[in-house]
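Input sequence (101 aa), recorded before submission:
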Amino acid sequence: MFASSSEAAEPAVDKQSGLVIAEGSNLVLAHCSACHSTSLITQNAMSKKRWLETIRWMQDTQKLWPLGDAEPVILDYLAKWYGPKESARRPPLAPHLMPKR
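Predicted structure, token format:
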């Protein structure tokens, strides 16, 4: 079975922040980039539980403010777009890119 065009399409990414544009991205940008680069987010791949632990660590040690009603939306966004990856390896090169034997 083939993936539909919407399933196969890559998500839109904000050129300035590098974040996937989706529900919650504006909250992540507002709360997270106030203290650090968004590249710190995009280079990670954590479960929802691990993102929550990281937020709690930042609140306990780095003076991150309470996120209130934004917290579940932020966690859902982070887990969906920056959750654990199926594979940490890049896909294999296309045959035409391989060296000639």
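Checked by second reader. Residues 13-84 form one domain.
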